[in-house]
Amino acid sequence: MDIADWRKKIDELDERIVQLISERAKAAEAIGELKRKEAKPVYEPSREQEVFEHVRAVNPGPLADAELQHVYERIIDVMRSLQKKDSKKD
């Protein structure tokens, strides 16, 4: 494959990633709603650690575990903000 082929593949992968992140965001919104109803905090450090441990355990590479965790730290941060934003709608 040449560079154009690889770039096309990356574009296709990005489209799939966007769809998956959107699904994850919908799940985070639903969890945020349940947390509000149950008066639970949005920030749950122990759950975040579970997520990091899980993604490191299933990481096939080539990203190092620390690099993958860094990506997930940002994803979780955005999802947490989404949950907080929803709570302001009430």
Write a brief structural summary:
The chain is an all-alpha fold.
What topology emerges from the helices and strands here?
Blueprint: H1 3-37, H2 45-57, H3 65-89
Helix pairs in contact: 1-3, 2-3
Give an overview in words.
The chain is mainly α and 90 residues long. 4% of the residues are buried. 81% of the residues lie in helices and 0% in strands. Helix 1 crosses helix 3 (65-89) and helix 2 runs antiparallel to helix 3 (65-89).
End-to-end CA span: 52 Å
Major pleated sheet? none
Could you estimate the helical fraction of the residues in percent?
over 70%
Q: Tell the overall outline.
A: flat
> How many strand elements?
0
Radius of gyration: 16 Å
Query: Mean of the pLDDT scores?
Result: 93
How many helices in DSSP terms? 3
What pattern of helices and strands is seen along the backbone? HHH
Query: Proportion of β residues?
Result: under 5%
Give the class from helix and strand content and strand pairing.
Answer: mainly alpha
Low-confidence stretches: none
Features:
90 residues
